[in-house]
Amino acid sequence: MLKWTGISHIWQDGRPEFTQDTAQTIREALFDILGTVRGERPMRPNYGSEILRLVHENFKNAEELARIEIIKTLSAWEDRIDKKEIQVSKEELRTGLNGLTVEVRYVIKDTGEEGYVRHSFG
Known about the structure:
The protein has three helices and five strands; from the N terminus they run ββαααβββ. It has one domain: Nuclear Transport Factor 2, Chain: A (Roll), CATH 3.10.450. The protein is of the alpha+beta class and 122 residues long. Helices cover 28% and strands 33% of the residues. The protein has helices at 22-35, 51-54, 62-77; strands spanning 6-10, 16-19, 81-92, 98-108, 114-121.
């Protein structure tokens, strides 16, 4: 079975800590992909998503727009998973601003293992 390797942590002295865990590597990739604003990386201008730009919009359909963005983004950048369920909910943060909570349930293609990530943007 193929094991994906990735950097799981960078210590203060700059040393990377590597992981051999496919599930953990994919979870970290999902957080990175969804948390990176498209255009933020000069050498990869199409990498990332537009979720953070939707957070403070006052669209009544912001949740559906974010869900479509997640599907599009993960289809483009993470081919190791099959998406099972994607939920987005709007919430008011303690600061009084809007936020979006994203929940993604998926299956790792190589192992059949189910995974779940939940992240709040805002």
